[in-house]
Amino acid sequence: MTAASPTTVEEPDAEPAPGPARTPPARDRGAARRVRRHRWDVRWSPYAFVAPFFLFFSAFGLFPLLWTGWASLHRLELTDMNRPEWAGARNYLRLLHDEFFWNALGNTFTIGVLSTVPQLLMALALAHLLHQRLRAATFWRVALLTPYATSVAAATLVFVLLYGRDYGLVNWVLGLAGVDPVDWQNGTWSSRLAVSSIVVWRWTGYNALIYLAAMQAIPDELYESAALDGASRVRQFAHVTVPSLRPTILFTVVVSTIGATQLFGEPLLFGGAAGQKGGASHQFQTLGLYLYEQGWFGFHLGRASAVAWAMFLILLLVAAVGGLLARLLRTDH
Amino acid sequence: MPAPVTPTPAGGRPRTGPFGYTALGLFTALSVLPLVWTAVAASHDNTRLAHTPPPLRFGGNLAHNLGIAWSDANLGLALLNTTLVAGSVALGTVLFCTLAGFAFAKLRFRGRNALLAVVIGTMMVPPQLSVVPLFMVVAELGWTDRLPTVVLPTLVSAFGVFFMRQYLVEALPTELIEAARIDGANSLRVVRHVVLPVARPAMAVLGMLSFVQSWNDFFWPVIALTQDNPTVQVALTGLGRGYVPDQAVVMAGALLGTLPLLLVLALFGRHIVGGIMRGAVKG
After folding, report:
1. What is the overall mean pLDDT for chain B?
2. What is the chain A residue with the closest CA to B34?
3. Is B77 within a domain?
4. Which of A126, A242, A331, B191 has fewest C-beta within 10 Å?
5. Which CATH number fits the domain that encloses residue B175?
6. Which of A60, A124, A160, A223 is best to mutate for the B interface (most B CBs within 10 A)?
7. What gap in Å lies between CA B5 and CA A320, rounded to an integer?
8. Domain residue extents for chain A
9. Taking CB atoms and an 8 Å limit, are A142 and B273 in contact across chains?
10. Which residues, at least 6 apart from B142, have a Cβ–Cβ distance to it below 8 Å?
11. What is the pLDDT of residues A42-101, one digit of tens each?
C-alpha cells in the first residue's frame, strides 16, 4: 500500500494541515512540485492509513450484515442455495411462534445473568485484593490470567469431565461433603449453572485486571481524606472505590452482556455429540446454538439469518441502554 | 469484599494481610488447578477415568495419549494450522491497526471523528451476522477447509485501532512528526522512522492479544473448516463430539491445544497483563 493512494472519500478543498506546506513558494519548478506532492501527501495519506480497516470491515462485516438481512427475508435452504425465494417477514414470524426460539432467548438471558453477575462481583473483589501492596504482584496477575489463555474448547472439554455425573471430580468432592450426586448434564438448572461456571472461570481474572487498572487511577488522596474522616475500610470501598469505578463497571457489564448474547462454544461442547441442541431437552440451548441448529442441521439459512438479525437487534438494545445509563451517570456527577 | 488489612501509618495503599493472601491463593488455585488436572487426567486411561475417586496423581500414560491425540485427533496438523492462522492475524492486525491508530491519533483530516465513531460502532456487529453469507461464498468458491477463509475476516479489529490510537495519542510527541516533515519526510517515512519505533511496545502487546484471541476463535472456524484441515478449536470440537471415545485422549488433546498459549503467557505474561490494563483505562 502506498502512502498516498487516493481513497474514495470525497473531500472538498480543505485548509491544508499547518506545517511546512506554508513555506513561501519556491522559485524553481522542482521545489514547486515537491510542495504540491507534499500537500497531496498530507491531505490524502490519513485516508490511506485508515482505508484497510474500512475495506476489510466493508467486505467481512458490513456487506455480510446486509446480505444476512436480505437472506432473512427469503426462503433459503442450505441444500439449494442458488434458489432463494422471497418470503417477506415469514422467517421472523416463524421465530415468534417457535417455542425453541423463546426457549433459547430465555436460556441466553438466564445463563448470561448466571455468568455475568458472579463474574463481575468476584472480579471486583479480586481487583481489590490485587490493588493492595502485594508481594509478587506480577505473579498473581499472570496466574489469574491462565483461564483467559485457555480456549473455550479446551476449557469446556475439561469441565465436561469435571462435571461428570458418575465419575466427575465435582460430584466426588460434593460426595465427601455428603451431597448426593448432581446430574450436571441433564438437569435444567444444574446444567445452566455448569455452563455459566465455565464462562465465569474463563473471564473473572481478565475483568479483575480491568478493574485493577481503574482502581490504580483513583488518586490516593481520596482514600486519605476518607480515612481522616474516620471511614472504615469497608466504607472506603463502598464510598470511594465503587463510585470511582462506575464507568468501568458499566463498560464491563456491556462487554460481558455482548459476550453472553453470543454465547456459543461452551454450551455446544458441553452438550457433547448433539451439542447444537443444548442438552437433551434444549435446557441450555442459547441463541447462538439455535442459529447454528437452524442453519447447519435444519439447513434453513434464511431462518438462521433471521436469528442473527434478532441477535443484532438485541445487542443494539443493550448498547442503547448502556449508552443511556452512561449519560445518566455522567450528569449524576 | 474488602479484606481486613494491617493499617499503614504512612498512608497510601494498605499492605495485604494473611487473609488477603489466602483469598488470592484460593482464586489462583481455582484458576490453575483445572489445567493441572487436565494433565493428570491425560496421564491415565479411559478405564481409570471411569472410576471413583477420580485420579489425583499422575499416571504413566501421558506420552502415549499425547501421541494418539497428535496423530489420530489431527492435533499435530491443527497446531500447525492455528499457528499459521493466529500468526497471520496478529501480523495483519498489528500492521493495519497501527496505521489507522496513528492516523486517528495524530493526523488531521476531514471526517476524522465521524470515522472513529464508525470504527467503535463496528464492535457492536457480532460474528453471527456474517456467517451465512461467508459460508455461502466459501461453498460457492469451493474454499471449504482453506485457511485464508478464517484469516481474512479477522484481519482487522476495531479494538486494535482504538488501542493503538489511545497509546499513540500520549506516547508520540506531535513535534517529532513535525520535525520529520520539515526535514522533508513524506508520510511513509514518518511512519517508518518516527511512528513505528515509538509504537513498538504497544504493537507487541496488541500482537500477543490478537494471537491469543485468534487462537481461541471458535464460531466461524467451526463452520468453515472440517476435521480434514482443522484449527485447534475445530479439532477439539471433533474430540468433544465423540470422534475419539477415549476421555484420556480428549484431555491430552485439550492440553496440547492450550500449551502453546500457556507458553506465550509464561514468557510474555507481564506484557499481556499490561496491555489488558492499558486497554481498559480509557475503555
Report:
1. 89
2. A158
3. no
4. A331
5. 1.10.3720.10
6. A60
7. 41
8. 1-50, 90-332
9. yes
10. none
11. 889 999 999 999 999 999 999 999 999 999 999 999 998 888 999 999 999 999 999 999
